Amino acid sequence: xxxxxxxxxxxxxxxxxxxxxxxxxxxxxxxxxxxxxxxxxxxxxxxxxxxxxxxxxxxxxxxxxxxxxxxxxxxxxxxxxxxxxxxxxxxxxxxxxxxxxxxxxxxxxxxxxxxxxxxxxxxxxxxxxxxxxxxxxxxxxxxxxxxxxxxxxxxxxxxxxxxxxxxxxxxxxxxxxxxxxxxxxxxxxxxxxxxxxxxxxxxxxxxxxxxxxxxxxxxxxxxxxxxxxxxxxxxxxxxxxxxxxxxxxxxxxxxxxxxxxxxxxxxxxxxxxxxxxxxxxxxxxxxxxxxxxxxxxxxxxxxxxxxxxxxxxxxxxxxxxxxxxxxxxxxxxxxxxxxxxxxxxxxxxxxxxxxxxxxxxxxxxxxxxxxxxxxxxxxxxxxxxxxxxxxxxxxxxxxxxxxxxxxxxxxxxxxxxxxxxxxxxxxxxxxxxxxxxxxxxxxxxxxxxxxxxxxxxxxxxxxxxxxxxxxxxxxxxxxxxxxx
Length: 484
What we know:
The chain is an alpha/beta fold. It has helices at 27-49, 57-77, 80-88, 115-123, 143-151, 181-191, 210-220, 239-264, 280-286, 296-310, 333-353, 364-377, 380-397, 400-431, 438-450, 455-472, and strands at residues 5-6, 102-108, 131-137, 160-161, 163-164, 171-176, 196-200, 204-206, 224-234, 275-279, 316-328. 44% of the residues are buried.
């Protein structure tokens, strides 16, 4: 642990992080983004110019694109069945290389209610971390009292000093003036001297084997510089909470299966900071987290990939099925919409900062495949909402010659989604070693059938709100639960 003591009015702890630097954008990138925007304008014109099913071109394009992604993910991940079966027949080999040391960072602001469960789970790990550092980001609740009374941490003394618990030597606290999650994490990275940095949200509870599994994964693969764990969303047991947990559970399942596919393509871009491990040396090389980004974990992975390609490094980003936890998720409509607004505005922000990589073969599969797909994703919710609004228009105005073939397309898409949804649930449960029960599959099927008319529209609405925030330049980080 690196010693650090500074006065409260000293800004030395406000660790600098990379700022967006404009780069030359190639013609291919401009053509990709311009084409996506122009196509949307074209489908709007087509809604009035065409009389047949092509009047619903927005929906047709949305269905074709989304279905193509589903089949791509399936093709890249279907071998998980036999891989997991073969692996379960033998003990996971112990890495021959020394196990790396681990430092856990928990950025907490007014998290006194959630923090005890998170800390208790970390202190109960079967292979615990060498350091668990709570970064108190200017909390105004009972966080300091909790840490002092329950965990034996000496009271704050008016300086930014790392304080060690008198009950658990690994547990330490660094209290900071409020500066945001990324800034707090950067301060923690500077203080740690461990090989690995693990970020855990203050409302994320790890399973007992998580730290040990993460440690062995990094020891087994020297190329691995960043890896995310598997999270399950948890909402309060109220009616709305059950509703949102039901849909978000399956959303997370599909998300993690998708991440495996992109990991195998060498183009994984999302490692949730709610439960993620990084090589500290790699973080220092790229300048740690960006304090100016709404989604600091997502932006960081872009920068790790960029640095690796530009410096000829064989760095790998992955997802680890053995590293598991559960995290709080939004349980009301407004909290859900605010979360998705921030996520999508941050996604647009990061995509804009890295637009020079889109379509650029210098960046391998990331530039040739993943970032062009993400460019389409910037407009996917707009296409989805456009298709829904047009469908309502056709229904209200009685355009039944359009409605009948459109409804056939929608029904076909629902059946494809249902099939993929059930396939993903079976693959996911097999991957993490759980049982697939009839009750579980029945609930999954019901969610898949209901989602297009409920949860999916809410996702698109949150994303559209994110577009408005991005255009308005409201790039301010706000705390929200959930970290898939």
